[in-house]
Amino acid sequence: MRTARVFIAPVTATALALSLGACGAGGGGSDDSTITVAYQKFGNFTQGDALFKDVKAAYEEANPGVTVELVPIEAAQNDYFTKLALMNRSPSTAPDVMYEDTFMIKSDVEAGYLLPLDDYLAEWEDWDQFVDGAKEAGAGDDGKTYGVSMGTDTRGLWFNKDVLAKAGLPEDWAPTSWDELLEAARAIKESDPDVVPLNIYSGKPMGEASVMQGFEMLLYGTGDTLYEDGKWVLGSQGFVDALDFIGTVYTEGLAPTPQQALDTNIGNTVSAEWLPDGKVGIALDGSWVAGNWLESGAAPWPEWSETMGTAAMPTQDGADPGAVSMSGGWTLAIGSGSEVPDEAFEFISMALNRENSLRYDVEASQIAVRSDVAEDPEYTATNPTAEFFTDLVEVTHFRPATSDYPKISNEIMVAMESVMTGQQTPEEAAAVYDEAVTGIVGDENTTQG
Amino acid sequence: MSRGVARAVPLAPAVVLLALFMLGPVVWSFYGSFTNTALTGPTAANPEWIGFDNYIGLIGDPDFPKSLWLTVVFVFASAVVGQNVLGIALAGLLRSAVRPVRSIASTVVVAAWVLPEIVAAFAAYAFFHSEGTLNAMLGGVGITGPDWLYSTPMLAVVLANVWRGTAFSMMVYSAALAEVPPELTEAAQLDGANGLQRLAWVTLPVIRRSISTNLMLTTLQTLSVFTLIYVMTGGGPGTDSSTLPILAYQEAFKFAQVGYGTAIATVMIVVGGIFSVIYIRALRPEVD
């Protein structure tokens, strides 16, 4: 038995460490005639998959000898970033073309995952069609461009007119402050206790959607901000107020139960089931939600434009400009280790040419970033809410464009989750956030709000 | 000497494979815990050696002591107490049961063990879900059950792990009990020992080596349980069921702090080591 004793410790250690060490499995690499394209395909988001499949067919027909290998990653948003980052860490799995969120670009550029596209873009005649905001969204800290924008988005309040009518609220309901929003939610709760009055994403499972559609839509309406003059703002009243709002809707039962809200699939459930079925009154969500209800979407709902109304998210107490929105968007980028960058860019230029951009912006309900698409009558005609959400661009905010943002975004999710579950008060959660941010960026990069 | 070398040669391939696939990740993980490796950002390209900063950060992190405590609770309640006590009780009872009862009962118990972990996890999720089997059954007798996964997440995952793991302990103890010489228990019986005394003073001392081995195996297995908890509660609500494996996963892969996550994994190795030493010392399987 003595040998057993010597043996047990290393075996123990090994078994435990394997759980972390065994990650990063290999997969198909790229050779000279293959372009690998990695993108997200999850739940209701299938429009990208449809686009890439068609572009693959067209590209392969135009370029015999080149194979396009599609790598759809079926994962929720945060897991998608993780999987993509793990793929990028090894040259044998790094994709040539990837679907990349604008807020990850600066961080991934510093990680050395992305290839600067300036030389290609200079020769691409279509590049002039992209609006300046879209060009900036794809830029790294070094000023070079790393991503070609597929479309942008804004956020606002979607509401089901039938549910609001039952609560005695008008068809053109437009709250002017947080209190009016809460009043409406309470009225809905009173008129029908089975309906979720107000959906605001919150907590870790929804990832960046919680932070952007939920928290930041509140925070940027308080007059405070996350990041100012190159420093992260700590201890602001707006931060506590925004958390307090989250706490209020979740503890008063105006939002989904925390159990429902902490389900990875809630994003799909809200847009594909609850809104069409009249189980949610008001939803703070993105401009793209209607894409689910188009004929090409995951949950076709022809009557949606009659039932659903839209309203701008009000600022905290109605202060100017009265409404608030946040913008993001996704790009296509090329991996820094790509052996076929020329072909990869050709693929991107095909996927985002006028015709395909138009198709994608319509199907995925994106706000067009190509001026030729934005003016296209087909674009303006297909989606009746396009005009409303495009107008929100005037009051929109962008997330802090720094490579630390993704980490800090995670700390916001943690704060939201501890407030919505009642584990911490807004003040406590804000204090934990302040400490975590100081740990990430250092004392010298923070300022008191 | 040359004979020793010659004998070692056939072992070489196995040793190399073990070193490559078992020791390699351990060493890498240990090394990683002293760096600030991340999945994205500047430290993904050029990780820096930061010494003990990750460990110092862990001590200051309010989630960590909580997670350590939850892990100890989870291991103690579901492995040490749940699986072992239930396992030995089942093994003892089934020995004296009639044949059909024995085969039916052991099939039911072993079924949970045979299920792949992900299937077992979904089954447990469906059972404890607020509109799941358990609450449906409680509803049948007029009780409105709580939302188990939300209000009592630790209880739910502990019970699920007991359900899933008891079969292993039961099988180990069935084999061990079959090895207890009947003349020993008979002698004790003649001396007037009752059932409980026979169990405490005869049976348990005889099978203590099996107990020690089984405690060790179930503890280490439970310590690294990930799928079950992740599927059932995702470590939540908040961090109310985030044991160390869940915390390590979240830090490494959700929050992209690979270095920090491997530091947590290293702590898990230490916790496993402490449990192992306790068992080896307390039950001294090698002395006879």
TrEMBL record, chain A:
- Keywords for this protein: Signal
Signal peptide start-end: 1-24
Q: Which InterPro entries does the UniProt entry name for this protein? A: Bact_solute-bd_prot1 (IPR050490), SBP (IPR006059)
Q: Does the keyword Signal apply?
A: yes
NAD among keywords: no
Give the Pfam families listed for this entry.
SBP_bac_1
Q: Record's PANTHER family? A: ARABINOSE-BINDING PROTEIN-RELATED, BLR3389 PROTEIN
Q: What's the name of the protein?
A: Sugar ABC transporter substrate-binding protein
Q: Which organism is it from?
A: Promicromonospora soli
